[in-house]
Amino acid sequence: MELPVEDVVPGGTMDSRRADASRESGAEDRLSIPVAWLAGLIASNLGVVVWVTVLGQPSVPIWLGPFELVVLTAVAALMTRRNAPRPLLHYFWMLPAIMLGQIAATAISQTETWISWARQVPAVVSFAAANGLKILPATTLALTFIGSGLTRQDLFLTIGDLRARLRRGQTTIRWGALIVIAIPTTTLPVLANVVAVRQPELPLSVALTLAPIIVLGATANTLLEEFVFRQGLLARLVPAVGEGHALGITSLRFGIGHWFGNPSGPIGVLLATILGVFAAKCMLDCRGSGWVWLLHWIDDLVIFTVIALTVVYVAGP
Q1: Which of 199, 243, 287, 296 would bridge 222 by S-S if both were Cys, CB 3.0 to 4.6 A apart?
Q2: 72: left (phi over 0), alpha (psi -120 to 50) or beta
Q3: Residue 12 falls within a domain, yes or no?
């Protein structure tokens, strides 16, 4: 978030300050942006997708996550050694922090104790618990902001301006109106995809009895995913590489993360990526997450309701 400066400020003129800001943002480092994209892809679910879908392997090896963690740490160390702009360094070091939490969450969900418990409870309970493990990468990510001086508004952890507008040339439209359009536009394809993959069989009355779990699970997943996939990364990426690249990196990472998610497959990736661009732009314009939380929560309510109507064990998110 840029602060207004006077024509003459301590430490130099306004022009010199702008030049310093340009260098700080990485405008003169041609390698920074490609490496930022590469690191974002490594930190996504791309490795798992390639291993299972492209290479045709039946299961993900236990070493893949730690290997990606080592690679991300090496990239961050390399960029530190190259004296990359400070905002970009914060981003590079965030990625291994998130990966560390994801490895811990995966390790817990693959224990015999967890799997045995998950097979004995309703599918939506195990599903909510698996998504609740995202508290671990959210925590490791949050630790990177200690002492940063960033505020809740900087991290988009506020409702924001609900009257903000999307501006394109001479055309403007309230984000509230766009959200009204986006709710059915996103919810219906998500519903169709999840129903086709999960094949719910139980009567709707079952979902009513499990409503507290559905609402709690959807709420927790919305808050955790927005923080891990968007809010934290946008706070670091926008000043480092600009809005356009920040939208692309965060949205593609969010999309790839849904290959085995809900929605899933290529359609799931496409839907999640489009939603990611929409949500990230809304956050930036509103300087908060009120509308995005609402949209994501409604989509998650639909997903958790469908899961509640399945009788089979749901391994994870």
Answers
A1: 296
A2: alpha
A3: no
Structure tokens belonging to residue 198: 């999960």
Q: pLDDT, tens digit, for every residue of 15-42?
A: 343 344 444 444 446 788 999 999 999 9
- Determine the Cα–Cα distance for residues 314 and 117; give it in Å rounded to an integer: 12
Between CA 18 and CA 305 the distance in angstroms is: 51
- Tell me whether residue 313 is in a domain: no
CB-based burial of residue 294 (10 Å sphere; 0-12 exposed, 13-18 middle, 19+ buried)? middle
Residues in the chain: 317
Burial class (CB in 10 A: 0-12, 13-18, 19+), 284: middle
Q: Are strands 171-174 and 165-168 parallel, antiparallel or unpaired?
A: antiparallel
DSSP code at position 261? S
pLDDT in tens, 54-95: 998 888 899 999 999 999 999 999 999 988 888 899 999 999
Any domain includes 7:
no
In a domain, residue 21? The reply is no
- How many distinct structural domains can be found in the chain? 1
Give the burial class of 266: count Cβ atoms within 10 A of its Cβ; 0-12 exposed, 13-18 middle, 19 or more buried: exposed
Q: In this structure, what are the phi and psi dihedrals at residue 18, rounded to the nearest 5 degrees?
A: -65, -40
Three-class SS of residue 267?
helix
Cβ burial, residue 65 (10 Å; 0-12/13-18/19+): buried
How are the residues of the chain apportioned to helix, strand and coil, as percentages rounded to the nearest 5? 70, 5, 30
State the CB neighbour count (10 A cutoff) for residue 287.
15
Residue 121 structure tokens: 């409870």
Half-sphere exposure of 13 (CA within 13 A, CB side): 2
